[in-house]
Amino acid sequence: MKRIVILTTVLLVLPGVALAAGFAKVGTFGGQELKIGVSARATGMGSAFTGVADDATAVFINPGGLVNVVGNEVSLNHVVWAADTKLSTAILAFNPRSIPGTFAFSVRSFWMDPQLERTAYNPEGTGRTFDSGTTTFGLSYARFFTDKFSAGVTLNYLHMGLAESAVNTGALDFGIMYRIGLGKDVKLGMAIQNLGGKFTFDERESKLPVLFKIGLSFNAFRNERQRLTVAGEFQHPADNVERANAGLEYGLNELFFARAGYHINYDTDGLAFGFGVAVRTGERTSIKGDYSAVDMEALGYVHRFTVTVVY
Q: Is residue 125 part of a domain?
């Protein structure tokens, strides 16, 4: 009964808090590209994934869910972002036999095509080009501490560059997952991201955008062939007002998937949808493909693609 009361309180309080007024510190933190969602599956559910986080992309969302990777998993993700910029990520998650828990190596690259250098005296271009972007290397580890509770951490090294200028810094992500159960596979996840990172660019010190998230998921319906997962999430960013996410995932035979979600109280993100297909290549091996689109109003739809290999 106590667990039911706590769960009900969370469900009642979060929507009200998410819509509460606050002071938006927009433009006061650096590293904004770290807030871009990488997973087609997660963003197809309206980015309500902190309480789901059961694949390799958990390293970028909630490291506490990385323990759900059984065996080895490779995840490749690509985002076609606004203003002709792109975000590409690669993850290798694995379970060594000699050490309990799950490890993962990850790399994330936010990049753009080379741009023509222009000056006041050469507005049509000098003939030289420059590039800009951020590359992040991460090491993650997660493990079960009880049969219901798991926790994980990701250590990140960041390299940010613009033309001939570059800075480096480090950051930490931490997350937990608690499997409440209650007959509906209820899960509660919490994560805090981008802790500790500071850098000085163009003689100005900036902080990374710390983000606290709490999410809940459960299977509203499940039988041998079909599954409907419902997820909700509340986010408290250090540089903006509170916001929320809600999403659904329907699975048929764990081979075909349809997803939909909505971003609540965001500056641009709104409706999201996506789908996925899995092909079993062996008893424990499979290949999965996922796609999502998120409506960003004046910026148009942002498209994401994910390919996952489980072996």
A: no
Q: Which of 262, 270, 266 has the alpha carbon at shortest distance from 230?
A: 262
Dist. CA 194–CA 170, nearest whole Å: 9
Tokens 């690509």 correspond to what residue? 78
Give the pLDDT confidence of 194-244 residue by residue, as tens digits.
998 778 777 778 889 999 999 999 999 999 999 999 999 999 998 889 999
User: What whole-number distance in Å separates Cα of residue 10 and Cα of residue 249?
Assistant: 21
Q: 22 and 268 in contact (C-beta within 8 Å)?
A: no
Q: How far apart are CA 134 and CA 160, in angstroms?
A: 4
Cα angle at 75 between 71 and 79, to 5 degrees? 165
- CA–CA separation, 51 and 57 (whole Å): 13
Could you give the angle at the alpha carbon of 61 between the alpha carbons of 179 and 293, nearest 5°?
115
Q: Look up residue 299 and give its two tokens.
A: 């910026």
Q: Which CATH number is 232's domain given?
A: 2.40.160.60
Q: Determine, yes or no, domain membership for 296.
A: yes
Q: Is the pTM of this model over 0.70?
A: yes
Contact (Cβ atoms closer than 8 angstroms) between residue 66 and residue 142? yes
